[in-house]
Amino acid sequence: MSDYVSGRHFLQTPGPTNVPERVLRAMDRNAINHRGPEFAALGKSVICKLRQIFQTSSALIGIFPSSGTGAWEAAFVNTLKPGDTILTCRTGQFAHLWEQMAAKMGLEVIAIDTDWRHGVDAAAIGDALGADRDRRIKAVCVVHSETSTSCLSDVAAVRAAMNRVGHPAMLMVDAISSLACADFRHDEWGVDVTIAGSQKGLMVPPGLSFTAISDKALAVARVNTTTHRSYWDWEPLVAANQTGFFPYTPAINLLFALDAALDMLIEEGMANVCARHERYAEATRRAVRAWGLELQCADPKAYAPGVTAIRVPEGHSADKLRDVILTKFNMSLGNGLGRVNDIVFRIGHMGDLSPLQLTGTLTGVEMGMRIAGIPHKSGGVQAAMDYLAGNA
Predict the structure, then answer these.
(1) Which fold does the domain 10-17+270-390 belong to in CATH?
(2) What's the rounded Cα separation, in Å, for the pair 357 and 355?
Protein backbone atom coordinates (compact mmCIF):
# COMPACT_ATOMS: atom_id res chain seq x y z
CA MET A 1 0.00 0.00 0.00
CA SER A 2 1.37 3.44 -0.95
CA ASP A 3 2.31 5.85 1.83
CA TYR A 4 1.06 8.78 -0.27
CA VAL A 5 -1.52 10.74 1.73
CA SER A 6 -3.84 13.19 -0.02
CA GLY A 7 -5.19 16.35 1.57
CA ARG A 8 -3.55 19.11 3.57
CA HIS A 9 -0.55 18.58 5.79
CA PHE A 10 -1.33 18.78 9.51
CA LEU A 11 1.37 20.98 11.04
CA GLN A 12 0.93 20.32 14.76
CA THR A 13 4.37 21.19 16.01
CA PRO A 14 4.64 23.83 18.75
CA GLY A 15 6.15 26.22 16.20
CA PRO A 16 6.22 27.02 13.46
CA THR A 17 2.45 26.99 13.56
CA ASN A 18 -0.21 27.22 10.88
CA VAL A 19 -0.43 30.63 9.19
CA PRO A 20 -4.01 31.89 8.66
CA GLU A 21 -5.14 32.67 5.12
CA ARG A 22 -5.65 36.31 6.07
CA VAL A 23 -2.03 36.56 7.14
CA LEU A 24 -0.77 34.75 4.03
CA ARG A 25 -2.73 37.13 1.81
CA ALA A 26 -1.37 40.14 3.71
CA MET A 27 2.23 39.19 2.96
CA ASP A 28 1.51 38.16 -0.66
CA ARG A 29 2.34 41.53 -2.16
CA ASN A 30 5.27 43.54 -3.41
CA ALA A 31 7.64 45.19 -0.97
CA ILE A 32 7.43 48.91 -0.29
CA ASN A 33 10.06 51.57 0.30
CA HIS A 34 11.25 51.03 3.84
CA ARG A 35 12.23 54.71 4.02
CA GLY A 36 8.88 56.00 2.82
CA PRO A 37 5.71 57.20 4.60
CA GLU A 38 3.73 54.00 3.95
CA PHE A 39 6.31 51.95 5.81
CA ALA A 40 6.49 54.47 8.66
CA ALA A 41 2.75 53.97 9.18
CA LEU A 42 3.19 50.19 9.14
CA GLY A 43 6.08 50.30 11.63
CA LYS A 44 4.19 52.48 14.09
CA SER A 45 1.09 50.31 13.69
CA VAL A 46 2.76 47.05 14.64
CA ILE A 47 4.61 48.62 17.57
CA CYS A 48 1.35 50.02 18.95
CA LYS A 49 -0.46 46.70 18.54
CA LEU A 50 2.40 44.70 20.06
CA ARG A 51 2.10 46.79 23.21
CA GLN A 52 -1.44 45.45 23.61
CA ILE A 53 -0.22 41.85 23.26
CA PHE A 54 2.63 42.32 25.75
CA GLN A 55 0.26 44.27 28.01
CA THR A 56 2.58 47.22 28.40
CA SER A 57 1.91 50.92 28.12
CA SER A 58 5.44 52.22 28.15
CA ALA A 59 7.98 49.51 27.32
CA LEU A 60 10.32 50.03 24.41
CA ILE A 61 9.32 47.55 21.70
CA GLY A 62 12.08 46.01 19.62
CA ILE A 63 11.59 44.04 16.41
CA PHE A 64 14.56 42.16 14.98
CA PRO A 65 14.73 40.17 11.71
CA SER A 66 15.85 37.02 13.56
CA SER A 67 14.72 34.00 15.50
CA GLY A 68 14.00 34.34 19.19
CA THR A 69 17.62 33.35 19.83
CA GLY A 70 18.64 36.72 18.44
CA ALA A 71 16.47 38.52 20.98
CA TRP A 72 18.08 36.39 23.73
CA GLU A 73 21.50 37.58 22.61
CA ALA A 74 20.33 41.19 22.37
CA ALA A 75 19.12 41.03 25.97
CA PHE A 76 22.52 39.85 27.17
CA VAL A 77 24.76 42.04 25.04
CA ASN A 78 22.88 45.24 25.90
CA THR A 79 22.65 44.81 29.66
CA LEU A 80 25.49 42.50 30.75
CA LYS A 81 29.24 42.17 30.33
CA PRO A 82 31.59 39.19 30.58
CA GLY A 83 32.02 38.19 34.21
CA ASP A 84 28.51 39.31 35.23
CA THR A 85 26.36 36.69 36.97
CA ILE A 86 22.87 35.57 36.04
CA LEU A 87 20.45 33.21 37.80
CA THR A 88 18.49 30.66 35.79
CA CYS A 89 16.18 27.73 36.41
CA ARG A 90 16.66 24.62 34.26
CA THR A 91 13.04 23.87 33.41
CA GLY A 92 13.75 22.33 29.99
CA GLN A 93 15.77 22.40 26.81
CA PHE A 94 15.22 26.07 25.98
CA ALA A 95 16.20 27.22 29.46
CA HIS A 96 19.30 25.05 28.98
CA LEU A 97 20.09 26.66 25.61
CA TRP A 98 19.71 30.16 27.04
CA GLU A 99 22.10 29.15 29.81
CA GLN A 100 24.56 27.81 27.23
CA MET A 101 24.45 31.10 25.34
CA ALA A 102 25.22 32.98 28.55
CA ALA A 103 28.27 30.81 29.18
CA LYS A 104 29.53 31.34 25.61
CA MET A 105 29.23 35.09 26.13
CA GLY A 106 31.41 34.94 29.23
CA LEU A 107 28.67 35.29 31.82
CA GLU A 108 28.75 33.40 35.09
CA VAL A 109 25.64 31.24 35.53
CA ILE A 110 24.02 30.10 38.75
CA ALA A 111 21.52 27.43 37.73
CA ILE A 112 18.73 25.89 39.78
CA ASP A 113 18.14 22.37 38.49
CA THR A 114 14.72 20.73 38.09
CA ASP A 115 13.30 17.43 36.88
CA TRP A 116 11.95 19.06 33.67
CA ARG A 117 8.42 18.26 34.86
CA HIS A 118 7.61 21.44 36.74
CA GLY A 119 7.79 25.18 36.22
CA VAL A 120 10.25 27.57 37.80
CA ASP A 121 10.81 27.22 41.54
CA ALA A 122 10.11 30.80 42.63
CA ALA A 123 10.98 30.08 46.27
CA ALA A 124 14.40 28.71 45.29
CA ILE A 125 15.00 31.82 43.18
CA GLY A 126 14.11 33.97 46.18
CA ASP A 127 16.47 31.98 48.39
CA ALA A 128 19.34 32.31 45.90
CA LEU A 129 18.80 36.05 45.60
CA GLY A 130 18.52 36.44 49.36
CA ALA A 131 21.89 34.73 49.76
CA ASP A 132 23.44 37.08 47.21
CA ARG A 133 24.41 39.77 49.71
CA ASP A 134 27.07 41.22 47.41
CA ARG A 135 24.44 41.66 44.65
CA ARG A 136 26.55 39.79 42.12
CA ILE A 137 23.47 38.50 40.31
CA LYS A 138 22.50 41.01 37.64
CA ALA A 139 19.61 39.20 35.97
CA VAL A 140 17.13 36.40 36.60
CA CYS A 141 16.29 34.53 33.38
CA VAL A 142 13.02 32.58 33.21
CA VAL A 143 11.33 30.68 30.38
CA HIS A 144 7.59 31.33 30.77
CA SER A 145 6.34 28.40 28.68
CA GLU A 146 9.02 25.72 28.31
CA THR A 147 8.20 24.38 24.85
CA SER A 148 10.16 21.17 25.37
CA THR A 149 8.23 20.05 28.46
CA SER A 150 4.90 21.96 28.21
CA CYS A 151 5.42 23.43 31.69
CA LEU A 152 4.30 27.00 32.32
CA SER A 153 6.13 29.02 34.96
CA ASP A 154 4.58 31.57 37.31
CA VAL A 155 6.35 34.79 36.37
CA ALA A 156 4.36 36.86 38.86
CA ALA A 157 5.57 34.57 41.65
CA VAL A 158 9.17 35.04 40.54
CA ARG A 159 8.79 38.82 40.64
CA ALA A 160 7.17 38.58 44.07
CA ALA A 161 10.10 36.49 45.32
CA MET A 162 12.56 39.05 43.97
CA ASN A 163 10.66 41.88 45.64
CA ARG A 164 10.48 40.06 48.98
CA VAL A 165 14.26 40.00 49.26
CA GLY A 166 14.67 43.44 47.73
CA HIS A 167 17.08 42.27 45.07
CA PRO A 168 17.79 44.75 42.22
CA ALA A 169 18.43 42.13 39.51
CA MET A 170 16.61 42.51 36.21
CA LEU A 171 13.89 39.98 35.36
CA MET A 172 14.22 38.59 31.82
CA VAL A 173 11.49 36.32 30.47
CA ASP A 174 11.38 34.14 27.38
CA ALA A 175 7.74 34.30 26.25
CA ILE A 176 8.40 32.78 22.83
CA SER A 177 5.82 29.99 23.14
CA SER A 178 3.50 31.76 25.57
CA LEU A 179 2.84 35.18 24.03
CA ALA A 180 -0.65 35.22 22.45
CA CYS A 181 -1.30 31.79 23.98
CA ALA A 182 -1.21 32.45 27.72
CA ASP A 183 -1.92 35.55 29.75
CA PHE A 184 1.25 37.64 29.84
CA ARG A 185 1.57 40.94 31.70
CA HIS A 186 4.87 42.68 31.08
CA ASP A 187 4.09 45.76 33.17
CA GLU A 188 2.05 44.22 35.97
CA TRP A 189 4.55 41.43 36.57
CA GLY A 190 7.50 43.81 36.65
CA VAL A 191 9.35 42.18 33.77
CA ASP A 192 12.38 44.09 32.53
CA VAL A 193 12.97 42.23 29.26
CA THR A 194 10.38 40.05 27.52
CA ILE A 195 11.43 38.04 24.48
CA ALA A 196 9.10 36.57 21.85
CA GLY A 197 9.07 35.16 18.32
CA SER A 198 6.74 35.37 15.35
CA GLN A 199 6.21 31.69 14.59
CA LYS A 200 4.04 30.52 17.48
CA GLY A 201 1.00 32.22 19.01
CA LEU A 202 1.46 35.27 16.79
CA MET A 203 0.66 33.09 13.72
CA VAL A 204 3.38 34.56 11.48
CA PRO A 205 6.12 32.62 9.63
CA PRO A 206 9.50 32.37 11.37
CA GLY A 207 11.86 35.29 10.98
CA LEU A 208 10.91 37.99 13.49
CA SER A 209 11.82 38.30 17.15
CA PHE A 210 10.42 40.82 19.59
CA THR A 211 11.47 42.32 22.86
CA ALA A 212 9.68 44.54 25.35
CA ILE A 213 12.21 46.55 27.35
CA SER A 214 11.53 48.34 30.63
CA ASP A 215 12.92 51.78 31.48
CA LYS A 216 15.19 50.08 34.02
CA ALA A 217 16.68 47.69 31.45
CA LEU A 218 17.16 50.50 28.93
CA ALA A 219 18.94 52.59 31.57
CA VAL A 220 21.25 49.64 32.33
CA ALA A 221 22.00 49.27 28.62
CA ARG A 222 22.87 52.95 28.30
CA VAL A 223 25.55 52.78 30.99
CA ASN A 224 26.89 49.43 29.80
CA THR A 225 29.68 50.82 27.65
CA THR A 226 32.01 47.83 28.04
CA THR A 227 30.08 45.54 25.68
CA HIS A 228 30.31 46.15 21.94
CA ARG A 229 27.11 45.75 19.96
CA SER A 230 25.79 47.00 16.65
CA TYR A 231 23.06 44.90 15.04
CA TRP A 232 21.60 44.01 18.45
CA ASP A 233 21.87 47.51 19.91
CA TRP A 234 18.67 48.63 21.62
CA GLU A 235 19.33 52.37 21.37
CA PRO A 236 18.19 52.81 17.74
CA LEU A 237 14.88 51.22 18.74
CA VAL A 238 14.05 54.36 20.72
CA ALA A 239 13.83 56.33 17.49
CA ALA A 240 12.12 53.44 15.70
CA ASN A 241 9.31 53.44 18.27
CA GLN A 242 8.65 57.10 17.46
CA THR A 243 9.09 57.07 13.69
CA GLY A 244 8.25 53.51 12.64
CA PHE A 245 11.51 53.21 10.70
CA PHE A 246 14.22 50.60 11.30
CA PRO A 247 18.00 51.17 11.55
CA TYR A 248 18.50 48.53 8.81
CA THR A 249 16.46 46.91 6.06
CA PRO A 250 13.46 45.30 7.78
CA ALA A 251 11.62 42.11 6.85
CA ILE A 252 8.89 44.10 5.11
CA ASN A 253 6.59 41.28 4.03
CA LEU A 254 6.77 39.61 7.44
CA LEU A 255 5.68 42.93 8.92
CA PHE A 256 2.68 42.95 6.56
CA ALA A 257 1.89 39.49 7.94
CA LEU A 258 2.42 40.59 11.53
CA ASP A 259 0.12 43.59 11.15
CA ALA A 260 -2.68 41.33 9.91
CA ALA A 261 -2.08 38.72 12.63
CA LEU A 262 -2.15 41.35 15.37
CA ASP A 263 -5.43 42.65 13.99
CA MET A 264 -6.88 39.12 14.23
CA LEU A 265 -5.76 38.73 17.84
CA ILE A 266 -7.06 42.13 18.90
CA GLU A 267 -10.39 41.57 17.14
CA GLU A 268 -10.85 38.25 18.96
CA GLY A 269 -9.77 39.86 22.24
CA MET A 270 -6.77 38.62 24.18
CA ALA A 271 -8.90 37.18 26.98
CA ASN A 272 -10.75 35.10 24.40
CA VAL A 273 -7.49 34.08 22.72
CA CYS A 274 -6.12 32.79 26.02
CA ALA A 275 -9.39 31.01 26.87
CA ARG A 276 -9.38 29.31 23.47
CA HIS A 277 -5.86 28.00 24.02
CA GLU A 278 -6.75 26.77 27.51
CA ARG A 279 -9.78 24.97 26.11
CA TYR A 280 -7.78 23.16 23.43
CA ALA A 281 -5.05 22.27 25.93
CA GLU A 282 -7.58 20.76 28.35
CA ALA A 283 -9.21 18.75 25.55
CA THR A 284 -5.78 17.39 24.62
CA ARG A 285 -4.95 16.47 28.20
CA ARG A 286 -8.28 14.64 28.56
CA ALA A 287 -7.44 12.63 25.47
CA VAL A 288 -4.03 11.75 26.93
CA ARG A 289 -5.56 10.60 30.21
CA ALA A 290 -8.15 8.50 28.38
CA TRP A 291 -5.35 6.85 26.41
CA GLY A 292 -3.70 5.97 29.70
CA LEU A 293 -0.53 7.90 28.87
CA GLU A 294 1.44 10.25 31.09
CA LEU A 295 1.90 13.98 30.68
CA GLN A 296 5.46 15.27 30.85
CA CYS A 297 4.26 18.18 32.99
CA ALA A 298 3.58 16.72 36.43
CA ASP A 299 2.09 19.85 37.99
CA PRO A 300 -1.53 20.69 37.02
CA LYS A 301 -0.91 24.31 37.99
CA ALA A 302 1.85 24.49 35.38
CA TYR A 303 0.09 23.11 32.30
CA ALA A 304 1.02 25.18 29.25
CA PRO A 305 -1.88 26.24 27.01
CA GLY A 306 -0.03 26.10 23.70
CA VAL A 307 1.64 22.68 23.73
CA THR A 308 1.27 19.30 25.41
CA ALA A 309 4.26 16.98 25.85
CA ILE A 310 3.28 13.31 26.21
CA ARG A 311 5.46 10.49 27.47
CA VAL A 312 5.35 7.16 25.66
CA PRO A 313 5.46 3.99 27.79
CA GLU A 314 8.92 2.84 28.80
CA GLY A 315 10.55 0.69 26.14
CA HIS A 316 8.78 2.45 23.27
CA SER A 317 10.01 5.14 20.92
CA ALA A 318 8.32 8.53 20.61
CA ASP A 319 10.29 9.19 17.44
CA LYS A 320 9.05 5.97 15.83
CA LEU A 321 5.50 6.99 16.65
CA ARG A 322 6.03 10.43 15.12
CA ASP A 323 7.48 8.83 12.00
CA VAL A 324 4.48 6.52 11.64
CA ILE A 325 2.06 9.43 12.02
CA LEU A 326 3.94 11.52 9.46
CA THR A 327 4.17 8.67 6.96
CA LYS A 328 0.64 7.35 7.30
CA PHE A 329 -1.33 10.52 8.03
CA ASN A 330 0.82 13.43 6.80
CA MET A 331 0.94 15.06 10.23
CA SER A 332 3.98 16.59 11.93
CA LEU A 333 4.30 16.48 15.72
CA GLY A 334 7.02 17.95 17.91
CA ASN A 335 9.92 15.73 18.94
CA GLY A 336 11.47 15.33 22.35
CA LEU A 337 14.45 17.59 23.03
CA GLY A 338 17.47 17.19 25.27
CA ARG A 339 16.99 14.79 28.15
CA VAL A 340 13.47 13.85 26.95
CA ASN A 341 14.62 12.97 23.43
CA ASP A 342 12.63 9.96 22.12
CA ILE A 343 10.75 9.86 25.44
CA VAL A 344 8.06 12.42 24.61
CA PHE A 345 6.18 13.66 21.59
CA ARG A 346 4.59 17.07 21.57
CA ILE A 347 1.25 18.24 20.20
CA GLY A 348 1.18 21.92 19.34
CA HIS A 349 -2.26 23.49 19.74
CA MET A 350 -1.38 27.14 19.46
CA GLY A 351 -2.17 29.88 17.02
CA ASP A 352 -4.62 29.39 14.16
CA LEU A 353 -6.49 26.23 15.14
CA SER A 354 -10.13 25.12 15.19
CA PRO A 355 -11.89 22.40 17.21
CA LEU A 356 -12.12 20.25 14.08
CA GLN A 357 -8.38 20.60 13.42
CA LEU A 358 -7.65 19.64 17.02
CA THR A 359 -9.88 16.56 16.98
CA GLY A 360 -8.37 15.60 13.62
CA THR A 361 -4.92 15.87 15.20
CA LEU A 362 -5.91 13.68 18.13
CA THR A 363 -7.46 11.15 15.74
CA GLY A 364 -4.14 10.94 13.88
CA VAL A 365 -2.32 10.33 17.15
CA GLU A 366 -4.72 7.61 18.26
CA MET A 367 -4.53 5.81 14.92
CA GLY A 368 -0.76 6.23 14.88
CA MET A 369 -0.37 4.64 18.31
CA ARG A 370 -2.39 1.65 17.13
CA ILE A 371 -0.17 1.17 14.07
CA ALA A 372 3.08 1.78 16.00
CA GLY A 373 2.15 -0.67 18.74
CA ILE A 374 2.14 1.92 21.54
CA PRO A 375 0.18 0.48 24.50
CA HIS A 376 -2.87 2.64 25.08
CA LYS A 377 -6.60 2.58 25.63
CA SER A 378 -9.04 3.72 22.98
CA GLY A 379 -11.38 6.63 23.54
CA GLY A 380 -9.02 9.57 23.81
CA VAL A 381 -10.54 11.36 20.83
CA GLN A 382 -14.02 10.80 22.22
CA ALA A 383 -12.98 12.29 25.57
CA ALA A 384 -11.69 15.39 23.81
CA MET A 385 -14.82 15.70 21.69
CA ASP A 386 -17.06 15.38 24.73
CA TYR A 387 -15.17 18.19 26.43
CA LEU A 388 -15.13 20.45 23.38
CA ALA A 389 -18.84 19.90 22.70
CA GLY A 390 -19.65 20.87 26.25
CA ASN A 391 -17.40 23.93 26.16
CA ALA A 392 -18.01 25.28 22.68
Answers:
(1) Aspartate Aminotransferase, domain 1 (3.90.1150)
(2) 5
